[in-house]
Amino acid sequence: MLINSRALALLLAILISVITTAFLSLVDEALNVALVICFLLSFSSSYILIRICLEFLFFRQIKEIHDALQDIRSQDLSFVTMGSGITASLNPLKKINKEIFNYAEKKQAEISELKRMEAFRREFIADVSHELKTPLFAAQGFVHTLLDGAVKDKSVRKKFLRKAARSLDGLDILVQDLLTISQLETGEIKMHFEHFDICELCKEVFDQLESKAEKGKITMEIDHPEDQPMFVFADYRRIYQVLINLVSNGIKYTKSGGHVSVRFEEEKGRIKTSVIDNGRGIPKEDISRIFERFYRVDKSRSKEKGGTGLGLSIVKHILEGHSTTIEVESKLKEGSVFSFTLKKGKAVEHRFIDDEEE
């Protein structure tokens, strides 16, 4: 038999009114009219009070708990938004209901995060597969061509071996970049902070990229007086990687005859470094995504320019390890500015990156 708040309230109201009327009937002076009025009053008041108590304090809360449990069982957690309106109450059923909503809200957040990570994993695997496939297939094609008889021709053999080696070098760089990002994310790479002159570090970066800039007819300059060092407290090797990536990108995406400059400014106990180019710029809708792994603004032209598509992602992770972020300002056909700040350091003697550190 189905028992609801109305039926239960009716039964209890009848019972209370009967008992009340029976007690009143024991009084000799009580009239029949008085007994009827007593019965009706006790019945109506009891029914209303009991119905309200059962409906709002018990049955409604039990129904919500039952519905919530059914939704959790069916993995439909859309109801969790209702939980935000539940306030503290002395009603134990409301407390139970609130706990269920809190539990469901946590599970909803976990499920959303798992779905996001699953989508990221699928996209990442697809990107890695695509990036690995290109140099592998290229090297494989050159080697098979040599095995099919081209190895006997010395000029062809040397040309194809050089191309295969270049493809494998690109594959090695890609794998190394993937390992770097993985180690940065898992915390395997620890930052070793020290005081150094970031102006001198920038000169070393320019020396490293000088031939690349000359090949593209790009001028490089440090927009800062030579006699004013800018000391920072950071990881020397990692900031070297940051500047190498940013300046290299500036050279890569700037047309012949353009320029790339690095500017240093002091701001409230921090040193702001800006890498500025007058290249082709970045569309506004792409700026928020350029630090994603393998994301390329112009995929076809980026492939021609080379690179693994991981440089800016590495930059982002390194700067996060320094408790700072990188800011981007860019206009199409005018250029881009990549800026980040580091804690100001103390004056020390100049140092160089040795071969082992690189």
What does it look like?
This protein has 358 residues and is of the alpha+beta class. It is 58% helix and 13% strand. The protein has helices at residues 5-25, 32-73, 92-147, 154-186, 198-215, 236-252, 284-287, 299-305, 311-321, and strands at 193-197, 219-223, 231-235, 259-267, 270-277, 326-331, 335-343. The protein has a 5-stranded mixed beta sheet with strand order 2-4-5-7-6, with helices on one face. The relative contact order is 0.08.
SSE layout:
Layout: H1 5-25, H2 32-73, H3 92-147, H4 154-186, E1 193-197, H5 198-215, E2 219-223, E3 231-235, H6 236-252, E4 259-267, E5 270-277, H7 284-287, H8 299-305, H9 311-321, E6 326-331, E7 335-343
Parallel strand pairs: 2-4
Antiparallel strand pairs: 1-3, 4-5, 5-7, 6-7
Helix pairs in contact: 1-2, 2-3, 3-4, 4-9, 5-6, 6-9
Q: Can you describe this structure in just a few lines?
A:
The chain has 358 residues and is an alpha+beta fold. The protein is 58% helix and 13% strand.
Question: How large is the radius of gyration?
Answer: 37 Å
For the biggest sheet, the summary is: 5 strands, mixed
Spatial sequence of strands, sheet with the most strands: 2-4-5-7-6
Intertermini distance: 81 Å
The residue-averaged pLDDT reads: 80
Which sequence of SSEs, written as H and E, runs from N to C?
HHHHEHEEHEEHHHEE
Note poorly predicted spans.
82-86
Secondary structure: number of strands: 7
Shape: elongated
The computed structural class is: alpha+beta
What level of helicity do the residues show? 55-70%
- Strand content is 5-15%
